[in-house]
């Protein structure tokens, strides 16, 4: 065992190094707090200036209402309960579309990634469809499915599908052949090879796809709701425009920003949990 | 467990990589396959392992000539090839079947054997090159393979770690008495470890010479006998001539 002392010393060195990293991380967290403060100085200043200028009447209220007016609008909506319905409806649409698009992407992406024949059959067509701007589908979907929920959810699903699909395929195709060989050496059959080697190896790429898919989902829900809806944050945008109340429009924009960021943050958390083995963690 | 190769040939796109290789290994023997790069050493090893099945000829392990991967062979690659998403312990239990508790106990035992008792919970990215290769050795051993195939397993390591791991391999060999086929281009390594060295030469690679090394283990790395063997091998690879001329 004495022979291994050098190695063990070097292992101690490694753990020391990781400990060092932890300390540094704590430090960067502190400076992270500083960064947050530094980064929020300008927005806060702008909001204050905006408020003052609005009160002074520099900005006409029918074009750019004061921040307090906007907050008041949100508060009123929260009080009479309409806010929660709007948020709920929009969030439901995004997640239904996100789930649908992701499921289809997983199924097609796995096929195309695993089987050369499937790639030759499906991929050219999918790539061709990808070059169509997704919003161009809107009239067709409305024509087929009416103005109700199905057309909106399909719309969002189409938007979510492509980034998730592309990342799954490239993730599966990019799995290190050397690791697959190790799996084969242990006599794994195809199913186990997929479950124990290929899936975990392509997980990082899949999660990147999910995050960009979710981002597109939020983009497409606005488009879908602008086309015609009686509820939802996108509907508030139209309502604000039609009733000449910019405070509703801005309130809706702010709500979109908050919920979108929250949902991305949840996914980022999942990513951090599942990919803790990775050398370079998420850069966001 | 005996291993026998009969007339193994393998070509890639019509170009032969190895041709007509035949040799056999007795149970518990350490055989070194030595040769310059490109003479088909790794090709031969992949054929024995079953990772490659498009060769001509027969490979018999205990009389069985199937071309598939067998669970009685273990493979240690040049790189550690650990799964980055599994901890060291999970990497070792990867190929084991059966009760989870038993698997962990077994893995821990082998981890201790390679001198990394404390490192079971680490991820591969936290290991040094030598430690990672130790884990790879433990992973290959944990299934108790009767034939252990090594493809230049220490070539990416520094000289000191390399010597440590060579000794570790000998220790393991003494304990488990597995048959070992070691592909290497390191003459010192081959002389230090092997009972028999098969020298491959040419393109396609053919067996040029077999040298038996009768020195008992453990051997002295600097001993006169080993130096003589080295001169013999260098001669047969035509590598000794330039130095003769200059001196």
Automatic annotation (TrEMBL), chain A:
Domain of life where this protein originates: Bacteria
Primary location class: membrane
Bilayer-crossing regions: 35-53, 94-115, 127-147, 153-176, 244-263
Location relative to the cell: Cell membrane
Membrane topology (UniProt): Multi-pass membrane protein
Transmembrane helix listed as a keyword: yes
Coiled coil: none
PANTHER family: ABC TRANSPORTER PERMEASE PROTEIN (PTHR30151:SF39), ALKANE SULFONATE ABC TRANSPORTER-RELATED, MEMBRANE SUBUNIT (PTHR30151)
Family: Belongs to the binding-protein-dependent transport system permease family.
The protein, known as: ABC transporter permease
Organism from which the protein derives: Oceanobacillus bengalensis
Top-level taxonomy: Bacteria, Bacillati, Bacillota, Bacilli, Bacillales
From TrEMBL, chain B:
Record's protein name: ABC transporter ATP-binding protein
Annotated transmembrane regions: none
Gene3D superfamilies according to UniProt: P-loop containing nucleotide triphosphate hydrolases
Pfam families for this protein: ABC_tran
InterPro entries registered for this protein in UniProt: AAA+_ATPase (IPR003593), ABC_transporter-like_ATP-bd (IPR003439), ABC_transporter-like_CS (IPR017871), ABC_transporter_ATP-bind (IPR050166), P-loop_NTPase (IPR027417)
GO MF annotations, alphabetized: ATP binding; ATP hydrolysis activity
Residues annotated as domain ABC transporter: 3-227
Key words, A-Z: ATP-binding, Nucleotide-binding, Translocase, Transport
SUPFAM superfamilies per the UniProt record, alphabetical: P-loop containing nucleoside triphosphate hydrolases
PANTHER family attached to this UniProt entry: ALIPHATIC SULFONATES IMPORT ATP-BINDING PROTEIN SSUB (PTHR42788:SF13), TAURINE IMPORT ATP-BINDING PROTEIN-RELATED (PTHR42788)
């Amino acid at each position: 065992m004495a022979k291994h002392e050098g190695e063990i010393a070097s292992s101690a060195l490694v753990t020391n190094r990781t400990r060092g990293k932890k300390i540094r991380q704590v430090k960067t967290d502190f400076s992270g707090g500083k960064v947050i403060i530094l980064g929020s100085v300008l927005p806060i200043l702008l909001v204050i200036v905006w408020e003052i200028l609005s009160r002074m009447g520099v900005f006409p209220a029918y074009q750019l209402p004061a921040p307090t007016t906007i907050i008041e609008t949100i508060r009123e909506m929260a009080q009479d309960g309409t806010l929660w319905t709007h948020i709920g409806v929009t969030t439901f649409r995004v997640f239904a579309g996100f789930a649908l698009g992701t499921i289809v992407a997983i199924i097609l992406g796995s096929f195309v990634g695993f089987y050369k024949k499937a790639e030759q059959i499906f991929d050219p067509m999918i790539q061709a469809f990808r070059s169509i701007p997704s919003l161009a589908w809107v009239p067709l979907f409305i024509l087929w499915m009416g103005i109700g929920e199905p057309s909106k959810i399909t719309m969002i699903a189409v938007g979510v599908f492509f980034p998730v699909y592309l990342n799954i395929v490239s993730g599966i195709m990019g799995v290190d052949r050397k690791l697959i060989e190790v799996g084969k050496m242990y006599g794994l059959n195809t199913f186990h090879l997929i479950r124990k080697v290929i899936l975990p190896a392509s997980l990082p790429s899949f999660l990147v796809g999910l995050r960009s898919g979710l981002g597109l989902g939020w983009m497409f829900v606005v488009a879908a709701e602008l086309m015609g809806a009686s509820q939802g944050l996108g509907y508030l945008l139209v309502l604000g425009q039609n009733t000449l109340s910019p405070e509703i429009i801005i309130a809706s924009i702010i709500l979109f920003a908050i919920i979108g960021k929250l949902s991305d943050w949840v996914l980022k958390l999942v990513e951090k949990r599942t990919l803790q083995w990775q050398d370079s963690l998420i850069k966001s | 467990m005996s291993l026998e190769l009969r007339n193994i040939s393998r070509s890639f796109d019509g170009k032969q990589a190895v041709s007509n290789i035949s040799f056999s290994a007795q149970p518990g023997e350490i055989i070194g396959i030595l040769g310059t790069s490109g003479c088909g050493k790794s090709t031969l090893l992949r054929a024995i392992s079953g990772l490659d099945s498009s060769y001509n000829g027969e490979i018999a392990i205990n009389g069985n000539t199937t071309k598939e991967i067998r669970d009685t062979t273990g493979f240690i690659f040049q790189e550690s090839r650990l799964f980055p998403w599994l901890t060291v312990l999970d990497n070792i239990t990867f190929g084991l079947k059966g009760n989870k508790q038993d698997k962990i106990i077994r893995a821990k035992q082998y981890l201790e054997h390679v001198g990394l008792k404390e490192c079971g919970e680490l991820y591969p990215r936290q290991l040094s090159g030598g430690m990672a290769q130790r884990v790879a050795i433990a992973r290959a051993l944990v299934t108790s393979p009767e034939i252990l195939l090594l493809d230049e397993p220490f070539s990416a390591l520094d000289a000191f770690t390399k010597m440590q791991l060579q000794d570790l391999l000998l220790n393991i060999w003494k304990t488990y008495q597995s048959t070992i086929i070691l592909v290497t281009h390191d003459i010192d390594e081959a002389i230090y470890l092997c009972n028999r060295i098969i020298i491959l030469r040419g393109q396609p690679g053919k067996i040029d010479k077999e040298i038996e090394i009768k020195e008992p283990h453990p051997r002295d790395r600097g001993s006169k006998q080993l130096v003589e063997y080295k001169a013999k091998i260098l001669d047969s690879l035509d590598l000794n001539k330039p130095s003769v001329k200059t001196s």
